[in-house]
């Protein structure tokens, strides 16, 4: 188990921590990097599979953010998107007082593989409800994350320049 934990730690250091530090070393401001991380996580959990890369690209263009930084966070958020997909559906059903549909992630992927248009048409209202639940829960968390990360990234810049 320790070997596995060490491998995970090395991977996260190489694939996530080092690139984030490099963005700061290359001159990306702590505020912009914090915004990349907060928006990458926010948009990376959007409950429409296959949409997050486009959403992060649009956010990077609109807010003049570092495209590789926001996409890095988006890609690392993908497992979280899958983990939260059904809970957002259930929260949407709760918000709109709808009975839960019998569905799991395996069924959704199976539906998408066998008949993508049919799956989209049969699940669109469920997905709209999930988006409503996402819209109510994630923006405040992202704002809080943004303000929590700014001093962390500022400290990293100060340490590297000292």
Helix/strand/pairing category: mainly alpha
What is the CA-atom radius of gyration, in angstroms?
18 Å
Average of pLDDT: 91
Number of strands: 0
Strand percent estimate: under 5%
The count of domains is: 1
What's the order of the H and E elements?
A: HHHHHH
Work out the helicity level.
over 70%
Largest sheet: none
Tally of helical segments: 6
| Overall 3D shape | elongated
List segments where confidence is low: pLDDT < 50 over at least 5 consecutive residues.
Answer: none
What does this entry look like structurally?
With 162 residues, the chain is mainly α. The chain contains six helices and no strands. Helix 2 packs antiparallel against helix 6 (116-161).
In short:
The chain is mainly α and 162 residues long.
List keywords for this structure.
162 residues; mainly alpha
Helix-strand blueprint:
Elements: H1 2-25, H2 30-44, H3 52-62, H4 67-95, H5 105-114, H6 116-161
Helix pairs in contact: 1-4, 2-3, 2-4, 2-6, 3-4, 4-6, 5-6
